[in-house]
Write a structure and sequence with these properties.
By secondary structure, this protein is of the alpha/beta class. It is built from 3 helices and 6 strands.
Length: 136
């Protein structure tokens, strides 16, 4: 399923603009409100496929659970938009994912090494590279 625009419900995710955009009345902060993702549902749970996660991976996960009616997250692959291993957002994200993901996560671009280490301290983080094949 294509998620469409992701509701921003977590207070620790992406409250800063990622740039600016120009409208007819001038320049405005751009929070990439049109950020979206995909969710794949199977009998045993859901798998989330993200782009850059400008809406926040936890917001994406919550919306995925809401629209599928399934609370079991079996895996996540994609960018998580995390750039620090010690930020409040990264630590809160690691805690959320530890409590809500039963399988592996595969953080890609938009997730730096320090953030991957912080996540890996809490839950299984898998390497992603050219030629990776996942069977769900």
């Amino acid at each position: 399923m294509f998620l469409g625009e992701i509701p921003r419900v977590n207070d620790f995710e992406n409250k800063k603009p990622v740039g600016e955009h120009c409208l007819t009345d001038g320049w405005h902060d751009d929070y990439v409100l049109d950020d979206s993702a995909l969710v794949y549902r199977q009998k045993d749970g859901i798998y989330i496929i993200t782009g850059c996660s400008h809406a926040g991976i936890c917001n994406i996960a919550e919306y995925s659970k809401q629209i599928t009616g399934c609370s079991v997250i079996k895996g996540i692959i994609g960018g998580l938009h995390l750039f620090s291993g010690r930020s409040q957002q990264t630590l809160a994200t690691a805690d959320y994912l530890k409590q809500n993901v039963e399988g592996n996560i595969y953080p890609c671009y938009c997730t730096n090494l320090a953030a991957k280490f912080a996540l890996h301290a809490q839950l299984p983080v898998q390497e992603v590279g050219v030629g990776l094949t996942l069977e769900w």
